[in-house]
Design a protein that fits this description.
single chain, 211 residues, alpha+beta, eight-stranded antiparallel β-barrel, disordered N terminus
Length: 211
């Protein structure tokens, strides 16, 4: 398919609510967690779905108002034909659900020059990271187990992300998420019930923005 057609086909109206639980697990225990997820999740009979993404966050700082941050993400393993995504992720609304974090979420496909365009609009590079790992699915729930790494330094004139990576910690970041179009209390119960099955290996919790 022509890249322009592929971009148009993926750039559809996107549901606006994301339900999230997050946690981390030491590298030594990751094989046990992956084995449990393979047993609990859907149709894991062959190779597990993998990803290797680069995400760059740009922030527009507004005096006397809340800053606005946008995330540019693309798959490193699809270069040079990666589809670039521009994402807006709002702060978690902790009072929306007793079991999970709920936040506004918007995603659209964009062209490769999006980073230069954001800078022209006044957005400044804030931070960036690489996320490489596995994806598991249980019904409409998505679980990612990823190693997070950062580049040793950023050359703003060099858009090539294939640089030496520096591991952020000796653990993996685990996120359980579900995208929906409206608030649904049953979603929190469904996610919390599944998260309980991963204990005591990992405890997935609501996002604590006070930390």
């Amino acid at each position: 398919m022509d890249p322009a057609q592929l971009l148009g086909s993926q750039n559809r109206s996107f549901p606006s609510l994301e339900y999230v639980l997050q946690g981390s697990i030491q590298d030594d225990h990751v094989p046990l967690l992956k084995a449990r997820l393979q047993g609990l999740c859907d149709n894991i009979t062959g190779e597990v779905e993998q990803f290797d993404d680069h995400e760059v966050v740009y922030t527009l700082r507004i005096p006397s108002a809340s800053n606005v941050s946008l995330r540019v993400r693309y798959a490193l393993d699809d270069l040079p034909n990666s589809i670039y995504h521009l994402r807006y992720v709002a702060s978690a609304e902790l009072d929306k659900s007793p079991n999970v974090s709920v936040r506004q979420f918007h995603d659209c496909c964009v062209t490769k020059n999006i980073q230069a365009f954001l800078q022209e609009l006044g957005f400044a590079h804030d931070y960036e990271y690489y996320a490489k790992g596995d994806i598991y699915r249980k019904g409409r729930i998505k679980i990612t187990v990823a190693k997070i790494s950062t580049p040793p330094e950023r050359n703003r004139n060099d858009m090539n992300p294939m640089v030496n990576r520096r591991l952020f910690t000796n653990s993996c970041f685990v996120e359980m998420s579900l995208i929906g179009s409206m608030h649904d209390d049953k979603v929190g119960d469904e996610m919390k019930s599944f998260a309980e099955q991963l204990k005591p290996l990992i405890s997935l919790e609501k996002i604590d923005q006070k930390r």
